[in-house]
Write a structure and sequence with these properties.
Blueprint lengths: L1 H26 L22 H16 L16 E3 H16 L5 H16 L3 E2 L3 E2 L2 E3 L18 E2 L1 H17 L4 H10 L6 E2 L2 E7 L5 E5 L5 H11 L5 H4 L4 E6 L2 E6 L3 H4 L8 H10 L3 H21 L7 E3 L6 E4 L2 E2 L2 E2 L2 E2 L11 E3 H10 L4 H10 L11 E5 L5 E5 L1 H15 L95 H16 L16 E2 L1 H16 L5 H17 L2 E2 L3 E2 L3 E2 L21 H17 L4 H9 L7 E2 L2 E9 L5 E7 L5 H11 L13 E6 L2 E7 L11 E2 L2 H10 L3 H21 L7 E3 L6 E4 L2 E2 L2 E2 L2 E2 L11 E3 H10 L4 H10 L3 E2 L3 E2 L2 E3 L5 E2 L4 H15 L15 H7 L15 E6 L2 E6 L2
Antiparallel strand pairs: 1-4, 2-3, 5-7, 6-7, 7-8, 9-10, 11-12, 12-15, 13-14, 16-17, 17-18, 19-22, 20-21, 23-24, 24-25, 26-27, 28-31, 29-30, 30-33, 31-32, 34-37, 35-36, 37-38, 39-40
């Protein structure tokens, strides 16, 4: 009888189970869809670079260090054994990525996943329906958010369920042997209870211990969560639709915002980056969501453009109370709000999010701003190999040292997405995307149409017209796959290690940098960190343009030397970057087989014009740019002689037959005839100040360029009662191109070569006129050529130009109303050269705060408004580093004399005519001398 009673009891339980299962299926019949076949998961079409492998290994170490062997779970934050279903989804995505990126082998993967699924399958569920909102990762007990055990639990999160369902789909797709196990877990959960009226509903426990179902999700996350449900056959049509939303203008961009705000629903309607990033890398951005994502990225760029503050906002843990914040584009009626879940503001803790920066960088690989913000965080790793920190606080500029599975899991998932050629991890047919229209008319996303660069750029103009500039209409970057027209990045191997590398340059400095000076130097060097192409070894002339001239590369080499001499970078970094740059210089194609062309794409190393357009045959050469790189290479040999052989090999490959003619410097240009032919024309250079600078550099290498060196008669005009030079009186050319006077070449000459009597006669009136204008008008004046991020992109704030005083001109010679800038670089240089002068002191005070610690110094500020001129260039940041070095060298010229004339260059000259136009005799045509006025270089051997 006992046996029979037991048998009847078992049969009753089975009957009840079957009835319950039938009732659930009666209301919801899931129709799971496998997203892809497993072979696609291992199809790595874009292997990670060595740098990216470093990122991946660092992120995976978080999960290695925070693994709980008893449960197979991982800690949601470093050392804290707690985790939500969202955190578990992060871990599964990270585990899958680690397997295909070969961070772990199949045996370890299986061991981890088996333990994880075993524990997950046995979890105690809230009301026996769905997983609790949070569990103790070490014990698998239900807990509250303080990690305190709680027998009943605190409810479930439908968004978290959606997250883990998406992760389940990726696991069953890439590892089909786990499909049945996963199906069994999902079948055990009463997923239908989290769906109501086509929406997602979470559960929470009220103070009276009753359970309340609450609608979950706002625009962005709601759609993402619903797609996870859909992968397993559970439909939530209202949740996956975009409505209800409106468009709110923020920084000139129409941003989609959920109309259900905190005041009316007690739930935040925040706009953040992560939901769009997840949608993009997992499902592929389509329809309205693609446009919305582009807007959310663009508005963050616009904030950076306006304020100089790099912006990548999303929710993150932080390393201090209140420990978790939503850094938003918009929340509950406020732009750029940083809030808790209870809508309490904490603007002082707004941060640049590491995971958001990684996401935007790989989701929009051609977006210059995404690259910039990524560069700020890509090395933000814990020194104890604990993973990536969550971000950088905007206000303090200090790292947010919170270590989380969310940050590190998303980084791994993003890198796996990249390795698959930017293809979404979940097939596009697996989950539908709403194509519903906005509730308000949104302006269409159209590409901006930018003007071409000037037909005839002035001598020494950096690539000045970025091909994609922001305008009032949001542009929608192509997310996947990468544009096939994108130049192929060339990987250049550095030259072999040099013999006996020196620990530092052989310069003797009078004193170390002060604390404030070091801050300036580090800020200036950040430009060269943020705009470094790790494959090619080159630096962009300007941050918004992937191009370089020889002048810009000379700036970079000068900055390298200054940064090493000031101990801003280590000997190892200096050596690695120098060898990389020297190798890249050997790879540049030469115009007509003679000399480097005017511009190169910094990714492909292919010649381009000043607008960035391909110029396969090149577009001539600039004698001025050659002078800049020759000065920098000469100083590299002098101060770091271990690189002498490599430097001489580069310059001996070049032919100087046409650049030095009858003692003057000449540049080559190309023109296209009506019949389609390209003709080359070689003409003397005439740019005041620049010609004199380049000629002195050529003299260092033994060239006779007496016709271009400083000297002879100069035309002048009266400005502020001072006779200011406007050009050399000459008979070799009638060129009137670009007749204007600016400070840049004169201060650079003074820093590197000193002020010989003839150059001093030009330098002093140029400075005096600017000081007199300030005395008369109270307008700070540091006249220079600067590069900005909007039309006309290049501005010459002249002392005199086109016959007018204090006019701002574009490269086309046309006036730029209210376009005059106070140049940051020139202000630093004048103060270094004239530290006791009261006006130079005023200039420095007006410009020292014009920097972004993550991007470098800005070009300057507008005279009329005082607003910062947005733009970052190698030229400005290099001159600032050189100015700081000049101060520490007791105001000695930065170019130091060589101690040997037995290098390959001089030996080649001594051997006689090589057909390359080398100098006739193996002697320098300039020398360093000193008198009571200081030290300076003069003509003569």
């Amino acid at each position: 009888m006992i046996y029979k009673h037991h048998q009847q009891k078992v049969l009753r339980w089975i009957a009840l189970f079957l009835i319950g299962t039938f009732l659930q299926l009666l209301f919801y019949i899931p129709t799971p869809v496998l997203s892809q076949n497993s072979n696609s998961c291992s199809n790595i079409t874009a292997p990670l670079t060595s740098e990216e492998q470093t990122y991946a290994r660092a992120a995976w170490q978080y999960f290695v260090k925070n693994y709980q062997p008893a449960t197979g779970f991982t800690n949601s934050t470093g050392g804290y054994p707690s985790g939500t279903l969202w955190d578990m989804g992060n871990y599964l995505m990270a585990l899958n990525a680690a397997r295909w990126l070969n961070l772990t082998d199949q045996a370890d993967f299986d061991s981890r996943l088996n333990k994880f699924l075993t524990t997950l399958n046995g979890l105690k569920l809230f009301e026996d329906a769905l997983p609790n909102k949070v569990y103790n990762a070490a014990t698998a007990q239900m807990v509250d958010y303080g990690n305190n055990p709680i027998e009943r639990g605190i409810g479930w999160s439908a968004l978290d369920v959606g997250r883990i369902l998406a992760a389940f789909d990726v696991i069953r797709t890439c590892h089909p042997q786990y499909n049945e196990w996963l199906k069994g877990i999902v079948a055990k959960w009463q997923v239908a209870r989290s769906l109501k009226d086509g929406q997602l509903f979470g559960a929470t426990v009220l103070p009276d211990n009753k359970t309340l179902l609450v609608q979950e999700g706002r625009l962005g996350y709601e759609e993402y969560g619903a797609r996870g449900y859909q992968l397993w056959g559970f439909s939530a049509p209202k949740a996956i639709a975009l409505e209800p939303f409106k468009l709110v203008e923020i920084n000139g961009v129409q941003i989609p915002v959920d109309t259900r705000d905190f005041k009316s629903t007690n739930a935040n309607n925040y706009v953040v980056s992560e939901s769009y990033i997840l949608d993009g890398i997992e499902f592929g951005l389509q329809g309205e969501l693609a446009d919305f994502a582009a807007r959310v990225l663009d508005v963050q760029k616009r904030r950076f453009d306006t304020t100089g503050q790099l912006t990548a906002v999303t929710e993150d843990n932080i390393d201090q109370a209140p420990y978790f914040l939503y850094n938003t584009v918009y929340a509950n009626g406020a732009n750029w709000a940083t809030i808790t879940d209870a809508n309490q503001p904490y603007p002082q803790f707004r941060s640049i999010s590491t995971k958001a920066a990684f996401g935007w960088r790989y989701l929009f690989p051609d977006n210059a701003y995404a690259q910039k913000v990524f560069d700020a965080v890509k090395d933000l790793r814990s020194p104890d190999d604990g993973g990536y920190y969550a971000g950088i606080y905007e206000e303090s500029k200090q790292p947010n040292k919170a270590l989380t599975g969310n940050t590190n899991g998303l980084i791994l998932e993003i890198l796996y997405y990249k390795s698959k050629g930017n293809h979404p991890l979940i097939a596009s047919t697996s989950a539908s995307v709403s194509t519903g229209k906005p509730s308000e008319n949104a302006s269409p996303s159209t590409p901006s149409n930018q003007p071409n660069s000037p037909d005839k750029p002035s001598e020494n103009t950096s690539p000045a017209t970025p091909s994609n500039q922001p305008n009032a209409t949001v542009t929608t970057p192509s997310a996947t796959p990468a544009d096939t027209s994108k130049p192929t990045e060339v990987a250049v191997a550095p030259i072999p290690p040099v013999d006996s590398p020196q620990p530092s340059s052989n310069l003797k400095l009078d004193r170390p940098l002060t604390v404030i000076e070091r801050r300036y130097a580090e800020a200036a060097w950040r430009y060269f960190q943020a705009n470094y192409h790790s494959k090619s070894g080159l630096i962009d002339d300007r941050s918004d343009f992937k191009g370089a001239t020889l002048w810009g590369l000379g700036d970079y080499l000068a900055a390298l030397h200054a940064a090493r001499s000031l101990d801003i970078i280590t000997p190892k970094e200096f050596d690695q970057r120098t060898r990389h740059l020297l190798a890249a210089l050997t790879k540049l194609s030469l115009f007509a087989g003679e000399l480097p062309s005017r511009g190169y794409d910094t990714r492909s190393l292919q010649p381009v014009d000043y607008g960035g357009n391909p110029a396969p045959e090149g577009n001539g050469w600039s004698a001025l740019d050659l002078g800049r790189i020759l000065a920098a290479l000469y100083n590299l040999k002098t101060c770091h002689p271990q690189y002498t052989a490599a430097v001489d090999k580069i310059v001996l490959d070049w032919s100087y037959l046409r650049v030095v003619r009858e003692g003057i410097l000449s540049s080559a240009t190309t023109t296209k005839e009506q019949d389609g032919r390209y003709l080359t024309r070689v003409n003397p250079v005439t740019r005041l100040g620049y010609e004199e600078y380049a000629a002195r550099a050529f003299q260092l290498w033994g060239f006779n360029v007496d016709g271009s060196t400083v000297g002879g008669e100069y035309q002048t005009t009266l400005v502020e009662g001072v006779k200011v030079p406007i050009g050399r009186r000459r008979k070799d050319t009638n060129s009137k191109v670009n007749q204007y006077t600016v400070s840049n070449p004169f201060v650079l000459y003074a820093l590197e070569f000193g002020l010989d009597p003839q150059m001093r006669s030009l330098f002093e009136p140029i400075f005096q006129a600017q000081a007199e204008r300030y005395r008369r008008t109270d307008t700070l004046t540091a006249s220079a050529t600067t590069l900005i991020d909007r039309k006309p992109y290049t501005v010459h704030s002249t002392i005199t130009g086109q016959g007018e005083s204090w006019v701002a001109l574009g490269d086309d010679g046309q006036p730029v109303p209210k376009g005059r800038l106070v140049s940051t670089a020139v202000a630093f240089a004048y103060h270094a050269l004239l530290p006791e002068n009261k006006y130079s002191q005023q200039l420095l005070q007006g410009t020292t705060d014009l920097y972004n610690p993550l991007a470098g110094f800005y070009e300057g500020f507008y005279e009329t408004t005082g607003k910062t001129a947005v733009g970052f260039t190698s030229s400005t940041n290099s001159m600032i580093l050189q100015s700081l070095l000049y101060k520490l060298m007791n105001r000695q010229p930065l170019i130091r004399p060589t101690t040997t004339m037995k290098s390959p260059w001089w030996q080649a000259i001594a051997q006689g005519d090589s057909g390359r136009g080398l100098p006739n005799t193996a002697i320098q045509r300039t020398r360093l001398m000193s008198d009571t006025s200081g030290s300076y270089w003069v003509s003569g051997s």
